[in-house]
Amino acid sequence: MYGPGVENIGRNGKPESFPVLEPNAEQLLVRVDAAGLCFSDVKVIQQGGKHPKLYNRNLATQPTRLGHEVALTVMKVGKKLQDQFRPGQRLALQPDIYERGKSTAYGYTIPGGLIQFHLMGPEVLQGDDGSYVLPLEGDLGYAETALMEPWACVEAAYSQRRRLAPKSGGVMWIVGRPGDSTEYKFSCGLDAPATIVTTDVPPSLFALVKREATVRGATLVVRDGLTPEGYRALRSELTAGIGFDDIVLLDPRSAQAVSEAAKLLARRGTFNLVGRTPLDSHPLIDVGRIHYDCTAYFGHPGPDIAAAYGQARNRCELRAGGTALFVGAGGPMGRMHVQRAIELSPGPALILATDINAMRLAALVARFDPLAALHRKRFVAFNPSAGSRHRYADETESLRAFVTRETDNRGADDVVVCVPSAEVMAEAAQTMAPNGMLVLFAGIPNGTFAPLNLSAVSLHNAQFTGTSGSTLADQLAVIRKALAGELSPNQSVAAVGGMEAALDGIRAMMEGRYPGKVVIFPQISGLPLTGLADLKTVVPDVAACLGPGDVWTRGAEAALIELWWER
Length: 567
What we know:
This protein is α/β, with parallel strands linked by helices. 27% of the residues lie in helices and 22% in strands. It contains 18 helices and 25 strands. Strands 1, 2, 3, 6, 7, 23, 24 and 25 form an eight-stranded mixed β-sheet that branches. The protein has a seven-stranded mixed β-sheet with strand order 18-17-16-15-19-20-22, sandwiched between helices. Strands 10-9-8-11-12-14 form a six-stranded parallel β-sheet, with helices on both faces. α4 (148-156) crosses α9.
């Protein structure tokens, strides 16, 4: 990729030929067996070298390669690596690579997997977490292996990413309300911050904070009488522009004040609302930062400020026996969320799926109705733009009304949003049940604000959470699930193609041409991009090996390799 835009991928719209080099002592020569295409690549295509993970790189002179979802086979091993790897060994890869704390992700800063062979060295094998490749033991197909990475991102959405306690050595800001006579206590966690800033804190709590700061040698800063307009100056004055690690609001009433205070939260910061009175409206909250910066919003009626923290009050998994709503469920990642919810044991009992694309929604129903029946779960699909519900007569109905109807006025226990729209996120949040969880899975830029009902955080233990990417542990978890038969990654495959079809596959992904994932087999030449339903006319011998409902299988992959693989 030589710059922004699909026209800068390859040369004249075609792959290029390069010599295959010998590995040095610290390198592996790997073969790329399969590469999944990811919508995250679209941001790279649109932004080119200005993408945050490319650090203003001049792609015209220092090009990169797309493709971070890969299945690899070791071909040759450098001398210093021969006790770790062997020729013929199969590998999965975790592309979220960090070196000295800096993201150097595979498929971004490190050229990725849309190639037949490439050298892999310390940039992948010696990162902050050690090696970012995962040797495969057991029987997984190439497409399945490549899809471990997006499945790990889905798995990560339900693992705890937020910090659930005050930061040790951090900066905490406690904001009270003048006239509040509540006798607050802070049963644990007040010993963590190195600096505590107070604003209009009730006298009894201020005495506790002052005593704790004196005992521990923490710095205490008092800034009483601030208005919301004056909050922002505190960021530069007291946190060097980074923001507060922990913010505590006592008995807040003003949505504007909450909105302004939330803007001062540091990356991975916690925002603890303590009180029994609803805010006067919904604050505007940076939903991009919930997704990318793991900012966390806790709450408790009080008077113990510490009661909001910890695992017990902040779950991250779908509620067993509950209702899960997936917004934007027809896209490749939305389908994975729906599949995971259906296969999760015990998992939710009622699964609601929405999408405004009629083709995608129909494909979702066709694929997952049988799976839901197999797992004895109720599955209902809904198109908000058409007001139609699967299994019901067409009827004009809002998303909120649909969820209210299907849940007997209770709302959804878990709401997962796979649409990068602040408006959709705000609308979806209104469908939450008490003690519900909103998962912002879709990436939306930092600085994008949406009105969220933060009153429900303190009053009803509502949770707003989001994740970006995955870790080695997440990928290991989905590999174990796939090998144990608890997860079927091949359900996600919608189209396949050879090396020359990669650019068409990228365009198809950008256009939403297929409801699931596009998988490219770089070792195959001449196979056009083909939807699984069309394999019957293009490659009938492969189509004959598909599973019921035209599901990709290891048998279909074996037939494709036998017929098309470059020898």
